[in-house]
Amino acid sequence: MSSIIIALIVVGVVLVLAIGFIVATYNGLVTLRNRVEEAWSDITVQLKRRTDLIPNLVNSVKGYATHEKEVFEKVTEARSAIMDAKGVKDTAEAENMLEGALKSLFAVAEAYPDLKANQNFMQLQQELVDTEDKIQASRRFYNGGVRDLNTKIQTFPANIVAGMFNFQAKEFFEVEDRASVENPVEVKF
């Protein structure tokens, strides 16, 4: 009879440890997933801030460079793509498009010394640079969270718990397209 009690105690301890492991792993996965979602929210806030700055920036440049219609259209189109983007991949593609359009816009601004000296334009440009820095910081935070979550989901034995509760790996937010880095934006006057 004492061997049955010992066996039951051993089974009970193993069962408690297994349940404890599952609960701890599940809670860790939920925490990581929430951090990734929070980081994505931070990115979307900064992207919204930037899209709100762009019309003012375009209008400042338009006053000086009225014949640069194609550049303004590309910036407007890229801004719309950011606002309509759904998910990480679409947002990253729209980011690439906007980055190229803004490079063209600033290249146009370089051709107009009065515009470069305009206080409003300089302030908008500085706010945009500040926002870009915040977007980069948010992107790094998001990608760090994605890395941690994906690592936990893919490593043993946490991958068993992740599979049981249908945790999915998240996509990294990678903006730079190698082709756009190697081939700078061409601006024609």
UniProtKB/TrEMBL annotation:
- Which InterPro entries does this entry report, sorted A to Z? LemA-like_dom_sf, MamQ_LemA
Q: Does the keyword Lyase apply?
A: no
* A GO term from the CC aspect: membrane
Q: Which Pfam families match?
A: LemA
Keyword Cell inner membrane in the entry? The reply is: no
Parts of the chain that traverse the membrane? 6-26
**Which topology term describes how it sits in the membrane?**
Single-pass membrane protein
What are the subcellular locations of this protein? Membrane
Q: Which UniProt keywords apply?
A: Membrane, Transmembrane, Transmembrane helix
Checking PANTHER family in the record gives: MEMBRANE PROTEIN, PROTEIN LEMA
Q: Which family does it belong to?
A: Belongs to the LemA family.
What protein am I looking at?
LemA family protein
